[in-house]
Amino acid sequence: MKAIQIHETGGPEVLKLVELPIPEPGPGQVLIRVEATGVNFIEIYFRKGVYSAALPLIPGSEAAGTVEELGPGVTGFAAGDAVACTSVLGSYAEYALAPAAQLVKVPEGLSMEQAAAALLQGMTAHYLSHSTYPLKAGDTALIHAGAGGVGLLLTQMATRLGARVITTVSTPAKAELSREAGASEVILYTKQDFEVEVKRLTDGKGVDVVYDSVGKTTFEGSLNCLRPRGLMALFGASSGPVPPYNLIQLSGKGSLFVTRPTLWHYVATRAELEWRSSEVLGWAAKGQLKLRTEHVYPLAEAAQAQIDLETRSTTGKIILEP
Ligand code: NDP
Description:
Layout: E1 2-6, E2 15-19, E3 29-38, H1 41-48, E4 63-70, E5 82-85, E6 95-99, E7 103-105, H2 112-132, E8 140-143, H3 149-160, E9 164-169, H4 172-181, E10 185-188, H5 194-201, E11 207-212, H6 219-224, E12 226-234, H7 248-252, E13 257-259, H8 263-266, H9 270-285, E14 293-298, H10 302-310, E15 317-321
Parallel strand pairs: 8-9, 8-11, 9-10, 11-12, 12-13, 14-15
Antiparallel strand pairs: 1-2, 3-4, 3-6, 3-15, 4-5, 5-7
The structure holds NADPH dihydro-nicotinamide-adenine-dinucleotide phosphate (NDP).
């Protein structure tokens, strides 16, 4: 099978197209013929060595495709089923293994590309808005990277829950997309100081929650945007990791809460995975959750796909098709 493999950490050039044997599913595993896989920041963290993994490595964190073969002990799935998964082992490939316990069926009416565009980023937006800080009518949320893959989905879910959403973006074109997703106010952080703007827009009160995926360059400013006892959900590090932080400062800023959540802990049980995935894929299939695919690349162009994501030139999702 064709796959992208990394033999050393580094820039996009370390992503090499190689020919490898098709893996065999072990107990509890399913072999998926990958039809679409999403490109995510986590694969860039692994490529650069920000997160460490044994090498050589086939990158990839999610896949949509059809079941090719079941490993010993797997029930509930059959060859040919349309499935998607956010905990695959190496989905930048024509075939990938996934634990059956983490696999979900793709509903009728949703293409593989749509399933790959919806599942990981959609379940992330779902847990942030429904569980990490469950939004309700009257809440105000600040969402950074409002026109990004997670940002567009999170804005839609937050506004549907009745919250007022303020976003930050880098360009006027991204601002337009963020408004279309439901943001009531969009801050062009390249021209305006987002902290000053948030204070102005909330009459000095601050927001109830900040969903911050940017990290290093926004963390301190985000804390300053919170109302007393507000919550910071730091869920990514697109600009780099946040340096060590002296927690006593949270007291001075208003007894703030900070959490560093990850999707894995919010889909850890089958019931929670089914709740989030069925809502996200169901809303997408009914057109109630608008998906935006920026670009579909062939697998061989994985490096270009990661460059696009890393250089802020994307809105919505990038898909690779083996
Ligand atoms: P995005 O589409 O949001 O892309 C990142 C965006 O971040 C850019 O387009 C850019 O938007 C903004 N950004 C600001 N500063 C930088 C910078 N220095 N370098 C790069 N981008 C920057 O990506 P995703 O939707 O795929 O992921 C968003 C974040 O969510 C990532 O950090 C990812 O790791 C995290 N994530 C976390 C999960 C979790 O469970 N914890 C799960 C899934 C994703 P603009 O141009 O408007 O500034």
